[in-house]
Amino acid sequence: MTEAHCQAQLDTFTQFQQGQQGMVWREPEEELNPDCISVTVKHSPSKMFWRCFSWSGLGPIVPLNGSVTGQTHAKIINDFVVPTLHTHFSRGNGIFQEDNAAPHHSKVATAARENAGIVTLDWPAQSPDINPIENIWAEMKMMIRCHSPPPSSISVLMEYATGAWNDIPPEYYRKLIKSMPRRVDAVISANGNRINY
């Protein structure tokens, strides 16, 4: 990823972040204090989002309903990718990058990209996960986990996710983009195995 790329990805937030709370320090008499207890939920409600970013800025964060199909992804391309690329790369010189999820390579999504004239970056199917957007996603999840009160519903979770996305400063995502040469060098040095990013 360089200043000429726009990277996109789908990911999910869960309302209750299972097993990701830190340690709780408490006095013996605080054992049942609600502030000192981690809530557990068997099947936490979740919400999937699509988002993208480039050197020029963050694109929209888009909540999605249901599973993502080729048709869903074609709609994302037409409704969000095309306008974001026009905004971030007004000269038409942007390169779009996304992972190899099956909906991204469906006939309908491929046709949507081709019809819009979108240039894409080839990405190996079994590549180490060095996408900088993963770092942004982890940062957002931490921001939501630290939010008080925790999300009480999916609509509140959506509000928190949107707020966290909008609070990501340009210095942060630009630093991630600048780290790409080091990440690629690390993957090469590790013979294609996982690296510490």
From TrEMBL:
InterPro entries: RNaseH_sf, Tc1-like_DDE_dom. Residues 68-146 form the Tc1-like transposase DDE domain. GO terms for molecular function: nucleic acid binding. This is Tc1-like transposase DDE domain-containing protein. It comes from Rhizophagus clarus.
